[in-house]
Amino acid sequence: SPRELSYVFGTWFSWHSGMVHVGKKRFSAGRMGESATSGLEQTFMRCGFRLGRLKTGTPPRLSASSIRFDGLEEQIGDSDPQAFSYMNDHPLVFHNAAQLSCFQTRTNPDTHRIVRENRESSAEYEAAGGKGIPPRYCPSIETKVERFPDRDSHVIWLEPEGYTTDVVYPNGISNALPEDLQVKFLRTIRGLENVEMLQPAYGVEYDYVDPQTSLYRSLETRQVKGLFLAGQINGTTGYEEAAAQGVIAGANAAYHVLDQPKIAIGRDQGLIGVLIDDLITKGAAEPYRMFSSRAEFRLSLRPDNADLRLYGIASSAGLLGTYRDSRVRDRQHRIEMLEETLRSIALPPQEWSRIGIKTSQDGVKRSALEMLSYTGVDVDVLANVLHRPELALADRRTKTHVKAQIHYASYLERQKREMEAFRKEESLALPKNLEFTSIPGLSNEEVDVLSRRRPETLGEASRVQGVRPSSLFLLLRHAKQGKSSPSL
Q1: In sequence order, what DSSP letters do the residues of 120-146 get, joined into one string?
Q2: Which of 22, 177, 250, 372 gets the highest tally of CB atoms within 10 A of its CB?
Q3: DSSP letter string over 326-353?
């Protein structure tokens, strides 16, 4: 039977059992310059967890004062930067003059020649010597040169790390070559002819716990009750991915102690739900990053409606303070007021055409709200042609949200029907102690993968790799014998 704890919220500190590679040099470490962490993997294995190895890499760090920026393509920041938090109405950075620019340069045939001729210098990491699985979406410069031999250059973005540091992050050239070769190929690149390398690039292998066989949707582990895992330990990479899991795992660890129902976010509710569902149904065959393309309902899971979508879950779970709660309610009110005002303005087609917005001459009156579905028409355009300057006074987030909702209304309506069908599947819980070996018609492979994964709902089972659509009907029969809603 599974072990039990009062509660523990766990995550690796940096890379657990990290093995750093710089050329042929290998040494245990966390991040470069940090001591290694190890030993915890033995405890996990004794508790029945399946562990694997992943790998990633990081580019060198460069001195900005040694870079020749003249002639490089400059990328300035947004003219009207927006904060990530809906609580922040006044970002500290207001004007381009207060922002730091990034600059684009590129590798070239000389760069590629040095990398190609010395490929074996990092072979122990890149080939058989390294055991970890790398991310496909962020290949090293060695991999780029090998995989795309017809390309004579690859983009590098020179990104300053802050206002008070000289360090530049050259995005696009992670590698595990020896330090002297790194300097050599860097100095073939435009703008970096005399560059000073402050820290070499390196590759790193590290442990992770297999999320497919270890986690419930609450991020509580199957092997140890009361143990919740979040972040890189679950096979993800990236700060945002770790933070998203931390919110769910942290909240559910508290609910576990309080003996209250745990929360879970579905694929139809938020990108956090997509991330967690992918981990527990597909595992992490490579370091996992959350791309919006992974979400089948991404048109509904937009940044402009994130607070409104997740408000109900957060509010009912007691995760909102009074001020934040009032801010979301106020935002909802402002959206409704703008929609109502736009809905109250209705003109015949000839009048819309007269003021510059072409529409079908069918004699049907259309509201200003409906006109937002037209390409090139937004709230500010309507405020101008209708001579209603008060419309333009609405804040940008409100105007953006209302425009998106109307512009994509027909698609959103169709997606809403798809989401309702999805929720019906998700609501069909599979019996907790279901013996898949007792279900006639399941293949040996399906019995094996379902027994290891133990999906909690029919919807979850449908996303487990190796399960045939025809087998879902067999599971449906058993799901209808269970509870009407899944346990977490």
Answers
A1: GGGHHHHSTT--SBPPSSS--HHHHHH
A2: 177
A3: HHHHHHHHHHHHHHHHHHH-EE-HHHHH
Give me the residue label for tokens 């390409």: 375
Q: Considering Cα of 444, then 445, then 448, then 449, what sign does the dihedral take? A: negative
Q: How many CB atoms lie within 10 A of CB 72?
A: 19
DSSP secondary structure string for all residues of 409-441: HHHHHHHHHHHHHHHHHHT-BPPTT--GGGSTT
As given in the structure block, the two tokens for residue 444 are 């040996």
DSSP secondary structure letter of residue 165: -
Residue 238: strand, helix, or coil? coil
Span 112-131, average pLDDT: 72
Q: Is the pLDDT assigned to residue 400 strictly greater than 70?
A: yes
pLDDT for position 94: 55
- The one-letter amino acid at 269: Q
Nearest CA-CA partner of 82 in 372, 393, 399, 409 = 399
Backbone torsion region of residue 325, taken as left when φ is above 0, otherwise alpha when ψ lies between -120 and 50, otherwise beta: alpha
Whole-prediction pTM value? Answer: 0.83
**R_g of the chain computed on alpha carbons:** 27
Give the residue among 442, 437, 423, 438 at the shortest CA–CA distance from 486. Answer: 423
- Tokens coding 335: 């959206």
- For the chain, give the mean pLDDT: 88
* CB 207, CB 53: distance < 8 Å: yes
Give φ, ψ of 63 to 5 degrees. Answer: -85, 120
Q: Give Dmax over CA atoms of the chain in angstroms.
A: 77
Per-residue pLDDT, 103: 98
pLDDT at 130: 55
What is the per-residue pLDDT for 488? 39
* Cα 481 from Cα 423, distance rounded (Å): 18
In this prediction, residues 424-431 reach a mean pLDDT of 82
Round to whole Å and give the CA distance between 404 and 402: 6
Residue range 287-295: average pLDDT?
90
